[in-house]
Amino acid sequence: MANFPKSVFPALCAVAIAAGFWGGHEARVRQDTGGASASAKSIGLDSMIASNDQARPGSEADYFYQMMLLLEREYVDAVTDESKLAFGAVKGMVDTLMDPMSQHLSPGEFKALMARKKGQFEGIGVEVLLNYDQTQLEKLRKNESDLDPLLLVPDVVVSMVAPNGPAAKAGIKPGDRIERVGAKWLMTSSALIRLRDLQSKSTQSRAAAEAFAKERADFQAKFKKVLSPARAKEILTTGTGKTLEITWTDGKASKSAKVVTAGCEVPAIKREGREVALKLFDGAAEALKRAGTLEPGTVIDLRNSSQGDFDELKSVLALLGPSGTYGTLKSERVGEPRTLSVETGAPSATGFTLKVDSSTTGAARILAEALAARGVAKLEGKLSGEAVWIETRSLANGSGYTLAIGEFVPNRAEASK
Known about the structure:
It contains 13 helices and 20 strands. The chain is of the alpha/beta class. It folds into two domains: 120-266, PDZ domain (Pdz3 Domain, Roll); 267-416, 2-enoyl-CoA Hydratase, Chain A, domain 1, CATH 3.90.226. The strands form five sheets. Strands 1, 2, 15, 16, 19 and 20 form a six-stranded mixed β-sheet that branches. A five-stranded mixed β-sheet has the order 8-7-6-9-10. It is globular and about 65 Å long. It starts with 7 loop residues before the first helix and ends in a 7-residue tail after the last strand.
């Protein structure tokens, strides 16, 4: 999760021009969005274009309002539907954050996301993230002059694979990076870095010039059939009945397979003896109750986790851990930080083992940190990345977006009580 400066828009425009596949962008403004519930919230037109504060002359809100008036007054065609402008502005504001956890979703993507929160998958049966080059993002945050906008094009990385879905059957795993979908290639920062590295080696006589020429020709050929990361994400996670030729890499070798998009369902829990595979889908808490008491020493597998349902996280936490405050949601907002608390927990909560790794993401990532910090569970494996709390919001046109509202910081002082 990151807090980016408003100068990000010019950088995005440079990416759009250089990469050749990003659509033209209008000037965007950032919007600070509040709300405590992690469930999908519906936002009407009024709340989309209104600021929490009254617009001031020269403020971003005033700029947005004046831009709408300008389009209505000067644009070559009559602007008859202001809602399209508002929905477009929301998309632009969220996309400009360049945060893998904060993404605008088309109506089809948003519908698929809400289904995945119930364990119902479409597309090839995966969740994917748009991962940005962290070095360039740090330069962007600091407004450094040597920022390279070309390297802000994200990679499309698989974050979760439905165990019984088409992708799993094809051999795609969490952490794999998508290179091609159908006849189109993804122009990513990884491809640009590889080409530049080879060019550098060639000029320093560490690689034959022919190798660089071949790589450049291959790059140019792919550039003619290019797919935006956002569009690839939508194709991979929505719809059924289409055959897609997918190429992906695990960082060592590229693999390809024909994958037929199909619907599949993943259970919230799968119990085998004293080991329980847990996904924080809607209804996970009830499924745990039906599964019976989890004895001390039970192993809970939180690997290969989806984003999950953050409201369900609270209910599951109340079943596995004692009451109390587990931590806060760190952000740069002014005011009292939000907390993750359980009013009525498990009175005899005791030692669980949680299997985790880099694929333990979303709500499961926070559950693992919360239980471990409280001393209720020990971790088997290592977590990676940030524990980010994500809200999901719907828009009146059927689209929606995810929004990172804070990084979970466990209250480790509770563990000793």
